[in-house]
# Entry
Amino acid sequence: MNLPERLHAIHRIWRYRLRSERDEIRHLLSLDLSGTTIIDVGAHRGAYTHWMSRKAGKEGRVIAFEPQPELHAYLERMAGPFRWGNVTLEPFALSSHEGSAHLSRPRHWGAASLEPVPEEGPVEHFEVPLTSLDAYRARHPELPRVGFVKIDVQDHELPVLQGATGTLESCRPEILFECVDHIFRHGRIHQLLDSLGYSGFFFYRRELVPVEKLSDLREKIPAPYLNYVYRERASLSGRNLSHG
# Structure
């Protein structure tokens, strides 16, 4: 990684930490994840991966899934300079099953998805390897318990979660995922996680607010999507959600 690229990466890491995803990364950093496995689904340019590596510590692991070949290569260039010794970079897209699938992306790579994307301009389609989190863990039994899962997959959140139900049931990790309104309002993601014993929250004024209050507050949040946190209900007693 040359110097300009490295400086750009540093700027991006701190921009996410202090501005773009301030509340979300602040929340991540508030958790005790040392020695666990942290899963980054849709690692993109590594802004979350970097902070996850710091939280996992020497005894923990970070598994970063990024199927876009250019971004996967970019993450490989970051690994050395940013001392990601506990990070494993995987070229898979995550879903509910194993195999392969067509990834679609417009000119803006951040919107790559296994779901159809609007054909409003140039769109690329190419095949990527596919796995599920449960299948991946079955092939890697040496991994420590999964403590945290972050998902950013552009409308493919439900299949990713469906392919992780074994992990959610056995490890009870905290989950952070980005989701647009029209998908979250279908209710299937919430129903699945609720059935597994999870409660959902969203960020509002630097606090975590129960999803049951979403309809009352959504119009006050000027964003086309929200980041949601789901936690095991049994772990919530007495916890101060405003500070993670």
